[in-house]
Design goal:
The structure is a homodimer. In chain A, 84% of the residues lie in helices and 0% in strands. The first copy, chain A, contains six helices and no strands.
Chain lengths: 228, 228
């Protein structure tokens, strides 16, 4: 095959890779939104929908892996391309994890009985969820618009989420100690909060990968952590 | 540079990559062992040691990424090499996650007050930890000895760990409901159990990656899950 065709094929593959990752990002976002809605509205149908849709994300993660392998076989990519390719694999993994955590939130929402769940606890988890949703949206926007500064801004925001998360855990412990009937629900909420906090970590991790992809700079310092 | 030298350099890099991953594996194993010891012996010094050693694992994860980028720049690798390279990145990520979960177990062990911790609950977490330790050891042995059958065996064993984990969660909930003073410790133990269970998931995930690396076969079916 003439060299020119190879280059064109490589560029086509690059576009396809971007498209797959952006489809994964969209799915991860909507999975999180639906999981939070399922919790808020005690809607088991929505929860089931989230649990079913997770397969598609796993499929796309495997697709990224195979696309990358194909691209590497097509030509010997240069430094920039290589960073792009290597970070693609890692971003896909992070998005797959995010969708998986959303699925877990949805699954746990099925265990929440409104009668034995303190409603401020429920709102607390929802609030944390919205913070993390905004973070995830920002990092995906940064990815789509190749906006380095936006990616950098995401990186520093994780600390707020940490603080909200730790405050919520303390609140949940208090409910459990005050009323043993809430223990089961609050335990579920605590795990959900942890899952949501982990989604925030992965979003921040994607921001780090984007910085590495675009600048070659590696983020080795510990990122800002919450104070609590 | 003559072609022969390129090949030799590639093979050298391949060896270096294997060495880095096997160092990561050894560290992940020892981090988990020390975290469990810290919990068992209420030893805060050991816990601190685990928390400090985590940096080294993160460093090695970045080293794998850079080695892979260097190798891809050296030559256009063939299908087998590519699978090896792509799975190396993912295995390194999984080991980094495992070490991170071990660090989290160590950190939480500092919060465990022997007086308000039901000792069977503590032994339960330790038992789960040993099961997962054995699983991790097996998958690392499979990696070192390139033993496909051993990797395949790891893949099916995760279900037992799921069962033990879910039994333990039920047990912890019972203690919390019976005696509110145990809530704080049991919550920590529940998160530790979750972390340990996740280590098992990642070990299984490494087994899947090894199967893909050596055979090209992708494990798309759901792996066996516990019944509880």
């Amino acid at each position: 095959m003439p060299a020119e065709h190879m280059v064109r094929r490589f560029d086509d593959e690059l576009e396809k890779l971007d498209a797959t990752i952006s489809e994964m990002g969209g799915l991860a976002e909507s999975q999180l939104a639906m999981a939070l809605a399922a919790l808020r509205e005690h809607n088991s149908e929505t929860a089931e929908k989230v649990m079913k849709a997770d397969n598609r994300v796993d499929e796309l993660d495997r697709a990224v892996q195979n696309q990358v392998i194909r691209m590497l076989a097509l030509r010997q990519p240069m430094a920039n391309d290589l960073r792009l390719i290597v970070t693609s694999i890692k971003i896909a993994s992070a998005l797959e994890r995010i969708a998986d955590y959303a699925k877990n939130v949805a699954k746990r929402s099925l265990q929440i009985q409104p009668l034995t769940t303190p409603s401020p606890a429920l709102s607390g988890v929802d609030r944390l969820g919205r913070l993390v949703q905004a973070l995830l949206k920002d990092v995906l926007d940064a990815l789509a618009s190749k906006d380095i500064e936006r990616a950098r801004a995401v990186w520093t925001r994780d600390a707020d989420i940490d603080d909200v998360y730790h405050g919520l855990v303390r609140e949940l412990l208090t409910y459990m100690m005050e009323d043993a009937r809430t223990i089961s629900a609050c335990t579920q909420l605590m795990f959900m909060a942890k899952n949501i906090e982990r989604i925030g970590d992965h979003a921040t991790n994607i921001a780090e990968l984007l910085l590495f992809r675009w600048t070659g700079e590696e983020v080795v310092e510990e990122r800002p952590r919450g104070t609590s």
